[in-house]
Task: structure prediction
Amino acid sequence: MINPPIKFALLTVSDRAFAGIRQDLSGPALMDEILSFGGEISAVQIVADDKNAIMRILSQWCDVSLIDIILTTGGTGFSHRDFTPEATLSILDKQTPGLVHAIYSASLHITPYAMLSRPAAGIRGKTLIVNLPGNPKAAVENFNIIKPALTHAVEILRNDPDVQSLH
Result:
């Protein structure tokens, strides 16, 4: 495993979870997966479906908290309140379309509804941000799809001197 451990942050985007009307199930499910992966959870937050609030938290975590990977869950659907991909794309330095393609490709083998998700993924500074669905099962499935590439991605973002030997 990479040393120091990969620092993750989890942002649940949900009006109902933020208001306390519904329990956040996807955040805790992802926490379990991150811990079993050997990652360290540095920040967890629930936010309403508000583009500016999402942008503010993502920017803070990238620029100040120096998180390696931010996973968002929720806000990637067709609802008029789903703004997570737009908020994410607006603060990125670079997009990572390969991660999105991998998510779509594998997810479509699980359910045709995967085509109704609108994830975004990319890099801001040295932080990778990936949008995952709000459904706990789908969020975990999507995390497991990209998990094999995450250690190497963080090594590259951290400018690990040994990373070139893998190419």
Summary: The mean pLDDT is 95. The first helix runs from residue 15 to 19.
